[in-house]
Design goal:
The structure is a single chain. By secondary structure, this protein is mainly alpha-helical. 83% of the residues lie in helices and 0% in strands. The chain is built from six helices and no strands. α1 packs antiparallel against α3, α1 runs parallel beside α4 and α3 runs antiparallel to α4. It is elongated, with a radius of gyration of 19 Å. The model has no long low-confidence stretch (mean pLDDT 91).
Length: 137
């Protein structure tokens, strides 16, 4: 029972953590139109639900007679991996949007600017995100 609860809650915790990081990163990059309306209206509700799944993951090993450290390790794994996956997917989506913008650019200069943004690496986009966060965006 505890193992099943751990796996199910772990999956939902990972999926929700991944989506929250994805949406948050896209929001910081200025693509609010890519976010679901429910997340825009209540991001704290999503985070609260994610915390609840995290608590279930932490406690579920106890239901099956497993050690508590199994839940701790699972939470740490989900927290680290979902953040990386969510941000990387957001960076991919950012580059995809920039490539689409090239085709609708009004001038060649504008198109080149979008092309330059589309060719940025994950670390360059992560640096942009950091700068936006520091600037209060």
């Amino acid at each position: 029972m505890g193992l099943i609860a751990l796996l199910v809650a772990g999956f939902f915790h990972f999926w929700l953590s991944f989506r929250i990081d994805y949406w948050t990163t896209l929001d910081i990059l200025g693509f609010k139109s890519e976010l679901p309306v429910a997340f825009i209206q209540s991001p704290h509700g999503y985070r609260l639900l994610n915390i609840i799944f995290g608590i279930i993951v932490l406690c579920s090993p106890l239901l099956g007679g497993l050690e508590i450290y199994v839940g701790v390790v699972a939470c740490i794994f989900v927290w680290l991996s979902s953040g990386v996956v969510g941000r990387n997917k957001a960076y991919e989506r950012y580059r995809q949007i920039m490539r689409e913008m090239v085709s609708i650019a009004e001038t060649d200069e504008e198109g080149e600017e979008y092309r330059a943004y589309a060719s940025k690496s994950n670390s360059e986009i992560a640096e942009m995100v950091e700068q936006f966060v520091r600037a209060g965006r």
